[in-house]
Amino acid sequence: MGIHIVQGDITRALADAIVNAANPTMLGGGGVDGAIHRAAGPELLAACKQVPLTERGRCPFGEARITAAGKLNARYVIHTAGPIYSQSEAPALVLASSYRNSMRLALENGCKSIAFPAISCGVYGYPLNEAAEIAVSVCLEDEFKSLEKTFYLFGEDIVQVWRQVLSQHR
Ligand code: ADP
């Protein structure tokens, strides 16, 4: 299945699973995380409080957790903590894991389509070109070929970057 790029708000996505660029607390935050929680309603935070975390109450960077989607037009929200670019020792590996683990959860839960934001590309500071390269390469891995993947990106600049990287892989 293909990879698509849409300029716009991921909370409007029609997909089996919407991926949230969350933080390790899984309790909501700013940016796309805040937008997803606002659109989904309080049910989403309640669901996040039920997911299994480490004994210190964290979802480790690069891992993902799945919940119901509240009022969103999706069956699931998949929350992943992408790397904080300046603080991660291996940001590329962690970012690839975020995409990979998100898609694995989607497949395990019978999803046929998934919507992604640009994980780590906001306050977490990931350089856009490198992030796009990782996002697209992982999406093209054989394991995920049955999933329809759509990136919802905020702003023309980031859409350009993603389109260029995608065209280089075609
Ligand atoms: P992170 O902490 O992983 O960097 P952010 O939420 O700060 O996450 O930003 C990730 C990306 O999501 C940024 O490119 C930001 O512009 C974008 N973004 C913010 N709100 C939305 C939204 N409603 N839909 C899609 N993308 C969004």
From TrEMBL:
Domain Macro: 1-170
InterPro entries in the record: Macro_dom (IPR002589), Macro_dom-like (IPR043472)
Xref: SMART domains: A1pp
One matching Pfam family: Macro
Classification via NCBIfam families: PRK00431.1-6
PANTHER family: GANGLIOSIDE INDUCED DIFFERENTIATION ASSOCIATED PROTEIN 2-RELATED (PTHR11106), MACRO DOMAIN-CONTAINING PROTEIN (PTHR11106:SF27)
Full protein name: O-acetyl-ADP-ribose deacetylase
Organism, scientific name: Photobacterium rosenbergii
